[in-house]
Amino acid sequence: MNVMKFVLGHRGPANLVKRSVQIATRFGPGPERMGGRFERFMDILDEFAIRPTFPITALPMSRNPKFARRLIDRGAELAVHAWSHIDLSALNLADQREHMGRAVQLFRECSIPFTGFRAPYLHWNEDTMRVVGEFQFRYSSNQTVWWDVIDPAPLPASAREGLARGQAFYRPLPANEYRVLPFRRDGFIEIPVSLPDDEIPLDRMYLHDVEYLAGMWRRIFDLAYTRGELFTLQLHPERIDFFGDALRGLLTHARACKPEVWIATLDEVARWWEEKARNRAQFVRDGDHFNVEMQACPGSVVIVREGGGERSMEPRSFTVETTARPCVSVAPGSSREAITVLADLGYIVETGERSDGYAVHLGRVENSSFATIDACRRVIDESKKPLVRFGVWPNGCRSAFAVTGDIDALTIWDFVQRFRGM
């Protein structure tokens, strides 16, 4: 593919010139300049006992394997960021398969552990996802989600143009029409990435007000926290000197939240989503109450709605004073995808014909769309009958947060090679 044409088309000539100047200042002939930035990045995270996930392009990594091992030694998780930094969606299935195979081979040759994948430019198509499944990654983190935290009205025309270009480039789903939670594809977990990130406001919109940018991320965090969802931050390590204080302020806010926020690597998020899918509950009626037996993975929390309030407990045997099964039911023929989504939200879902035998009977749920599941949740919340469910996040946490940052290049020569598709 013509990388120069691709970049020029999506950034515009003026932006490309500015970007070239930035590259010259952010990267050096060797990895030392970037190495210093990573040390500063990790120093900030260490203050809060947080481990990041860094998707790294395989070819630059193979030229500097000691750099990758240093990140691992400091607690970072590394993920595959393709073999070279190109738009994978421009390749056919066979070429994507070959490209991914070369990336995986380099990671293995360098003895760098990995379980996840993120595409360059966050560009992917169904062939990309097919290849991710074929190579048995545990997770992919490519679906972008846009949080409406930037008001374009008071911005200059150049900033509005940069914003529009960024949104067109990443093609995000609107967060107000989407559950920002992991979900299952064929054989792996997809973990959404939140936008705006660092690149759009700084390098496309040229917003250099640190307080404004810090407030942008704080608003995303608060929205995700209120909704009980996931904020996957994207902060390229090359920009840590500009965003360091904003990151520190965000992490201070996150650690102060009560109930707590679960802060994890992407691999930990994917593992949790896999393990909690095996949680089960058995209900046995005994007169005017139900005996409940829970089988759940470590970290699971059981939430019992009873007597007008809720209580949380560790999974164990207990009783619920009710004559209706304290779970959610759907009619036969309901969408399997909808049942999975409801289970991911912590609900224990059974199939039943009779509406009077359950705490909540949703009828036939036709699909798993945002509107349909939102309507189901309202029905569940409005019910006054006792109900047992699982917490969405481990250890009673209200929401989840992950710090990530793509490593596209380590030296200025890596960037030069990118324009050659290497």
Give an overview of the whole structure.
By secondary structure, the protein is of the alpha/beta class. Helices cover about 40% and strands about 20% of the residues. The protein is built from 15 helices and 21 strands. A four-stranded mixed beta sheet has the order 3-4-8-7, with helices on both faces. Strand 12 and strand 13 (about 290-295) form a beta hairpin. Helix 1 crosses helix 2 (about 15-25) and helix 10 runs parallel beside helix 11. It starts with a helix and ends with a helix.
Can I get a quick summary?
With 422 residues, the protein is an alpha/beta fold. It has 15 helices and 21 strands.
Shape: elongated
Largest sheet: 4 strands, mixed
Q: What structural category arises from helix and sheet content? A: alpha/beta
**Strand arrangement in the largest pleated sheet:** 3-4-8-7
- Mean pLDDT level: 92
Question: Helix share of residues?
Answer: 40-55%
Percent in strands:
15-25%
Rg estimate, integer Å: 23 Å
Number of strands: 21
Number of continuous helical runs: 15
**Unreliable residue runs:** none
Head-to-tail CA distance between termini:
11 Å
